[in-house]
Amino acid sequence: MRRGRSIGTAVLSESTHGVKVTLNIKNLPPGPHLMHIHQFAKCEAPDFKSAGPHFSAAGADHNPTGLMAGDIPNFVLTVDADGTAHATTTAPYVTLGSDNNSVFSNGGTSLVIHAVAG
Question: CATH no. for residue 63?
């Protein structure tokens, strides 16, 4: 939500290399944005800090690649001038299962789209 308004949808599905994330976004400022999976299933205004830090599976700081489980490498969401974006990416370090890397572990996670300073 952005100031209480919907910003679209994210559909998560199984992938051979992690979790596929399909985005249909609206009502965001144009330009580049980053996206991460955050530790908690809360994402409350005004500062959205209730989502916690980037998701870290099993409490580890980083996975063997040096990235956190909630990181989505090499992905920038580019929002068009009309505030919309349609994109698909893969979150390679998470699952939809019941393991520690699952986006459903410990009560769930949240998907956070961050503004990127231009």
Answer: 2.60.40.200
For residue 26, being part of any structural domain is answered with yes
Q: Among 115, 113, 109, 114, which residue's Cα sits nearest to residue 38?
A: 109
Place of tokens 């580019």: 78
The pLDDT tens digits of the residues spanning 47-80 come to 888 998 889 876 555 556 667 889 899 999 999 9
CB distance 16 to 61 below 8 Å? no
From 99, 87, 89, 80, select the one nearest 37 (Cα to Cα).
Answer: 89
3 found inside a domain? no
Decide if 1 is inside a domain: no
